[in-house]
Amino acid sequence: MIKIGQINSLEVIKKADFGIFLDGADYGSVLLLNKHVPEGTEIGDRLDVFLYFDSESQLVATTEKPIAQVGEWGLMKIEGINVTGAFVSWGISDKNLLIPFSEQRARFTEGQNILVYVYTDKASGRIVGTTKFNKWLDKTPANYEVNEQVDLIIAERSQLGYKAIVNGKHWGMIFPSDVFGKLFIGKQLKGYIKQIREDGKIDLALQKVGVAKMDDLSMKVLELLEKKGGYLPLNDKSTPEAIFDAFRTSKGTFKKTIGGLYKQGKIVIEKDGIRIA
């Protein structure tokens, strides 16, 4: 089944001087211009191509990969603004993505980087972008467990912390006490469910909560010690940056973890690092 606005695997059915034609099933043959055709392509080969409608509403293909397909979020730069709306770089050289004024939560300026959700407008059939995310999120119950790993996209920053999109389906919040490392709008990373409140709102963490968090980190510390010959130049006096670079965790959690390993007799804490006991 052909999916417009997404990457499809299509068969090459014909060659021409200006490109090749692909089997678009019910859509007929789809043109792929020479500049996008991989060297050595022959009739009968299958190519992974992104399908979209050009300015004349003709279905075309490209081997370029968009920043975000239909149903996905992506960080995009505003290339221009006119009476229709804002046009953002989509990762496709021949096509920018339109964000109609009706789909903008705020007015934009050229050169600005914004997080965009890509969808197909049912009325026009056009692929467009939006920054009004609420109508796409929290439509299903948030059936998560504490410490469940989830995919996050950082969407907004406020005085409360960072709002993140959880698994492409729900809103969640990362409070300042759970932030470590560098976060920015559009960043995609793994996170964990900290709790689901009675009102359904989701609190997030960037590392496992409680004992589970420390157990997980304990294994990572011991595994890295083994790989490094039994010694690491890190301890409770190391900088937060050095600890984060090695374990993607906060200094506080690292200190508690190596303290627990020390009490269990698994490591020795030395002046400049830690060593397997």
Automatic annotation (TrEMBL):
Q: Which Pfam families match?
A: S1_2, WHD_CvfB
- For the Conserved virulence factor B-like winged helix domain, which residue ranges apply? 220-275
> InterPro entries from the entry?
CvfB_fam (IPR014464), CvfB_S1_st (IPR039566), CvfB_WH (IPR040764), NA-bd_OB-fold (IPR012340), WH-like_DNA-bd_sf (IPR036388)
Q: Where are the transmembrane segments?
A: none
Conserved virulence factor B first S1 domain ranges (all copies)? 4-63
Similarity comment text for this entry = Belongs to the CvfB family.
Name of the molecule in the record: GntR family transcriptional regulator
Report the source organism: Vibrio alfacsensis
